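User: Can you fold this complex?
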Amino acid sequence: MQTHQFDAIIVGAGGAGLMAALYASQGGANVAVVSKLYPTRSHTGAALGGIGAALGNLDEDKPLWHAYDTVKGGDYLADQDAVKVLSEEAIDAVIELEHMGLPFDRTPDGRISQRRFGGHTSNFGEKAVRRACNAADRTGHMILQTLYQQCIKNNVRFFDEYHVVDLLMNQGRAVGIVAIQLGTGEFHVFQAKAMLFATGGWGRVWQITSNAHSLTGDGTAILFRRGVPLQDMEFFQFHPTGLYGLGVLLTEGIRGEGGVLLNRNGERFMERYAPSIKDLASRDVVSRAIYMEIREGRGIQGKNYVHLDIRPETVNRYLAEAGESRRIDDAYVAKNLAETLDVCRTYVGVDPLKDPMPVHPTAHYAMGGIPTNVDAEVVIDENQTVLPGLYAAGECACVSCHGANRLGTNSLVDLVVFGRRGGKAIAEFVKHADFTPLPDNPTGEIEAEFERLRSSKGKTRPGELRHMMQQTMMDDVGVFRIEEGMEQGIEKVRDMRERYQNDLHIDDQGHTFNTDLMEAWELGCLLDLAQVTAKSALQRKESRGAHSREDYKKRDDENWMVHTLVSTTHEEAYPKGTLDLNVNLNKKVNTSLADEDPRFLPKERVY
Ligand SMILES: Cc1cc2nc3c(=O)[nH]c(=O)nc-3n(C[C@H](O)[C@H](O)[C@H](O)COP(=O)(O)OP(=O)(O)OC[C@H]3O[C@@H](n4cnc5c(N)ncnc54)[C@H](O)[C@@H]3O)c2cc1C
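Assistant: Here's the predicted assembly.
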């Protein structure tokens, strides 16, 4: 076992982690980033469409309008203090990325270009606004490259391909982490005054997902096992346009550029569900609309998908109908949606310039996660009590600026805004804090769990169990939910956890790059998060944002303007037998913007 010591450890090298590392190091802290992937392979690199900021370069725009859209899009569950920070600091953060060298697309007069995106409007819902700043459809890739270069320049230490598996606590503080070096299988202890988790999402809980193979919610599960409650886990976003059968994401930017959704009759069905902004309604609304069309037999050839059409002739027809002067052609699509063309041609042999694309909803984004305040400090109860030394930012965190449903382009904003705030807060914290001693035998518990996994000689392979969990969650805790289904889902996941503990089979006994073993451990994280998600969903007896119940179809602001907090009741990180969960519904939604402006009060969402 090797031990390292840094002022601050950042777990995860996606947009949130790198932004935090950059700012903590600029503030004078000695920083290391520990990442299971090589940094530029993080999922942030797959983000396509853009990053939202009310720059007003092409249409008049204001942060308050951005805030309004975010609160409305989140179905009024977002904490409005966090939304205010998000929408105001987005502007500065984007300009800062530009100054770091990010090659944004340009307007003819050289300013950052902007495009439309779902749910983003001007003047409190009046009409769609161009707010998404983009670098072709490779925005996340560019953010990641830019931030990585800046971190290197700023002497941030990188531990790449180190898989973090535990959080160390002592005297009520976070004091370090444990990681496995993938190349050797060796355990490393990192002691730090402060640590920030930025480990991304867990779309791999579901069968059809846009998320990379690595998105298994490790950081979220680790903190949960160490006693941190998880917030609003019932809210997991299904993106409307995953490529049929695969779930690979087709960016909302396609609809932003004028693309339309069509059913088997060639009908632009979103006109019925969202008469005002149609295909650009928020994602929960569009995903449900697609499901309804499919259920009612209007999927293409009666199958479970619809068409997304970006062919210039279709788009231009609708643009003309809407009285717009703008027209597009093949060259325009090829330039602005290059990745989309590539993905469709490669994966399903469809050329979007010649044929419409087959799409259906795909599990995409975790609105819930590790609860934090606006400085990315982890909080552990309804009174926002801070756990000293522990921070979280990005998709794994829940600050909560997205509420019950995130708007497109707001995740990238979240990463840079709250990653930066976390980095700054850490730089201040480590100036005054001392190192707290590590607990005795810091790797004892986690090494025992890995030994148990490595020597498992049961009958069930991790891949088989993972598949069962993904199918169950898709069926029982997917786009539409109902009590009996969720109860059944919880039972099934419980059984799977039981098999995970007693009947697993691991082939590879080795130490170097034992992906068999690491994937088995990741499956444990997924199972815990699946159980917390299902439990949270069962508790919330209303429909709001991405959480849509067939037995409680209405949003209930009287009783449910609260966040869900679920924690484990076990002392040990890996309890034997079933997992017992405690639900706390006392955390009220922050409505500070509504206190000053009644337009921020909850009302029916009309698009
Ligand atoms: C296909 C796709 C397209 C998207 N497009 C957009 C878009 O256009 N606009 C937008 O706003 N959002 C978009 N999103 C969402 C957005 O990209 C993500 O929410 C965001 O990038 C998450 O960033 P992150 O920094 O939190 O984590 P990630 O970028 O996912 O990075 C996670 C990091 O954590 C590390 N890690 C995880 N577990 C461990 C562990 N156990 N030990 C060590 N390291 C670990 C990984 O190595 C990685 O470096 C998209 C998402 C997808 C999947």
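The mean pLDDT is 96. The radius of gyration is 23 Å.
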